[in-house]
Amino acid sequence: MEQNILLQLSHISKRFKTDLALKDISMSLHPGEVLGFLGPSGAGKTTTIKIITGQLRQTSGEARILGTDSTNIDASIYEKIGVVSDNSGIYEKMTVWQNLVMFAQIWGVSNARVEEVLRQVGLGEHRKKQAGKLSKGQTQRLVLARAVLHKPKILFLDEPTSGLDPATAVEIHKMLLDLKAEGMAIFLTTHNMEEATKLCDSVALLHQGEIVEFGSPQELCLKYNTNKRYRVLLDGKEEVVLEQTSENVDMIADWMRRNQVQRIHSCEPTLESVFLQVTGKALSA
Amino acid sequence: MGNTMGNMNKLFAVARIKWICISRNASVMLGPILVVGMVLMYKVLYGSMVGGELPPILTGVILSLGISMNICMDGFMMVGMAIAEEKEKHTLRVLMTSSITGGQYFVGSILFPFVLTVAVNFVVLLISQVSMEYVSMPAFFLVSVTASLISCVLGMVVGICASNQMNASLIAYPLLMVFMMIPILGNLSETLRKVSGFLFTGVLTEMTNCFANETRYMVKPLDVAVLAGELVISVLVFLILYKKNGYEKD
To answer: What CATH number should be reported for the domain holding residue A200?
Structure first.
């Protein structure tokens, strides 16, 4: 096996009674890489995380996390990984500081590190505030702070910005990109394709428990850009969408020569439309 | 050595979390306050009825009521409700995915309620006006500690079965009825008295009745068998449920 693979899934399947929730899932994750699992609710994203983190056992296949078979891992694995789900709770009756210090004690982390993380997530001035009184965005930042307190090698994020306002989601994205820059590997599940495009080095499109496409967001968008088109805004505020034909290329060139083009964009598909094209279903369904 | 320290730190972190959560949950903390308050109130009421020192039978009633109530309300309710609250607030999974083992969570969860239950038992004994001359402290300590432990383990069973705090109350009440009411009502019915002899709370009540009646209490083999048997059974029930679904069903 490659030395720097932190996570390796080989032909993972999971069956719940008669329902096949995951089919032949294979992938790997390296340090400093963000891997996105994209799919609508019920596609098998959370099930995958639970199998990898030992909370659920697969029906077949092998999952290795930090070199250990996920069926053989014990509680000590959580000293090296961080887990955030969309419903990760906080101790509402404790202060922000207490919420972190309790987990710092569990992981043997110093109070100086708690200070550092508090500052990093912008909750330094709220340290004495009761956690139950935080806004939704602040709560999610606290959850994230707690998950990275012990500097995990892999961070599992299950819909981390679900239900957050756009401004808070942007803050969370910035934090995640900083963590990636520090070398942390991130396994992200989301049905938000903009989030995936912004954060992920590679994405797996999951449909009914199966990976139907895999690659970098750009690769996938270009792969399905079979019908090349351009959206052009002209001087007269007229907007036209033109397919890539030799006549249209000449026409655009002519407009440009005459300085009539205000704006021009290529119309390659988004991850959302790629998903729709591959599965026939919308990602947000 | 370092590993042992780490494990102890984790255990104490869970105990600390539980201490903060339980001590800030008014409905749960009302239990021990209610027990002490009720014993004091009964003492005053009965005292004013008889116009002086309480006869042993009334002291016995007060003592057994207080201790039975304490054992059941603090153990079942405090431990069970605290786990149910963690499920309700989605913090149990967070804790269990932070390298805490099932054993550490178990010990950490019952530590504070167990100590509190034992302490309140002693407070009830001291304020009940029972004559200390006839109180066998080693026997009281042994029976009280074992009974408190059983009730805390049963509280863990309540917590493992409950999905939320409301649910925990519903599960705990039948246990409360059996383990609290049968020994108390044992004074009124011979059948219930016999049944009570096979309950860990019944052993405790019988002992406190002896103290109140100013007779020497001797730990009988049946008492030891009941206490040990019910401790083993409650641990086994807990382990079976834990093996099945862990602390929280998916």
So the answer is: 3.40.50.300
Task: Please indicate whether, in this complex, the C-beta atoms of A56 and B250 are within 8 angstroms of each other.
Answer: yes
Q: Which of A76, A85, A102 sits opposite B99 (nearest CB)?
A: A76
- In this prediction, the residues of chain A whose per-residue pLDDT falls under 70 are 1-3, 283-285
Distance CA A59, CA A51 (A): 10
pLDDT of residue A283: 66
Interface of B with A in 8-27 (CB under 8 A): 9-10, 12-13, 16-17, 20-21, 24-25
Contact B225, B143 (CB under 8 A): no
Residue A275 lies in a domain: no
Instruction: Write out pLDDT tens, residues B105-152.
Output: 999 999 999 999 999 999 999 998 888 888 999 999 999 999 999 999
Domain-located, residue B231: yes
Specify which residues A239 forms β-bridges with: A233
The count of structural domains within chain B is: 1
Are A268 and A221 contacting, i.e. CB atoms less than 8 angstroms apart?
yes
How much is the ipTM here? 0.87
Beta bridge partners of residue A65, listed in sequence order: A7, A68
pLDDT tens digit string along B83-111?
Answer: 999 999 999 999 999 999 999 999 999 99
A260 and A129 within one domain: no
Alpha helix segments (H runs only) across B129-220: 137-161, 165-176, 182-185, 190-196, 200-212
A126 at the B interface (CB within 8 A)?
Answer: no
Q: Which domain holds residue A244?
A: 226-267
**Cβ of A94 and B99 within 8 Å?**
no
Using the Cβ of A181 and the Cβ atoms of chain B, whether some distance falls under 8 Å is answered with: no
A104 with A59, same domain?
A: yes
Q: How far is A198 from chain B (nearest CA, A)?
A: 27
Q: How confident is the model at residue B74 (pLDDT cuts 50, 70, 90)?
A: confident
On the 0-12 / 13-18 / 19+ scale of CB atoms within 10 A, B62 is buried
Q: Is the pLDDT of residue B2 over 70?
A: no
Number of domains comprising chain A = 2
Q: Check residue B137 and give its pLDDT.
A: 92
A:B CB pairs within 8 Å? 64
CA distance B13 to chain A (A): 6
Provide the 3-class DSSP secondary structure of residue A83: strand
